[in-house]
Fold DUF4918 family protein.
Amino acid sequence: MTYAENILKYYSNISIPQQLPEGVEVLYPFDDSEVSAILNTFYNKYFNDSQKRTFLIGINPGRFGGGSTGIPFTDPIRLKEELDIENSFDPKPELSSRFIYQMINAIGGPEVFYKNFYFTSVSPLGFVKDGKNLNYYDIPALQEALEEYIVEEMKKQLEFGAKDIAFSLGMGKNIAYLKKLNARHKLFKEIVPLPHPRWIMQYRLKRLDEFVQEYSTKLTRTID
């Protein structure tokens, strides 16, 4: 099976975590027919091969990015303007998606980038509480409830074909959790931290070009 076939099979059967803390809801876009069509278009376009890829591991999808379109770090605007995939989603921008596609273009554009890299997250499904995005680590009880789920879902994705070195998109709680998880389960040989795209866009926008260069330098070292 190609990378695309494995990914599409995975998302069509993705598990939904159970027994979550009260008030926590799961973002599950994959039962939407438009999302399904877009996933097929995107992954068959960029992942129609069997080449191993470097995993870039975010926190969990947000409402206006992967939680909406089904494609990690890709909001409806980037979906149309950068990937030329028409869609009828509410064209709300996501800060992380803006940074990611500037970085992708610096590396050589979507075709070059997606041939070598695969976006996922610690939790492949996102969460909301009281209508707001929720990170898996924001509530200790949520993080604890998710651990077995997180490990199982990551192992399923590793079967697509993963290189030994992965990157954490997040230098604080995300990399700390990933390193603990990796020490127990030996998922990767090494996980390298990178500053989270949203943090860059929200707090270090004046240094945007510097961070794009940091990503580009570190990621291109993994390209064969």
Notes: Residues 57 and 121 are 5 Å apart (CA to CA). The domain at 3-220 is CATH 3.40.470.10 (Uracil-DNA Glycosylase, subunit E). The radius of gyration is 16 Å. The mean pLDDT is 95.
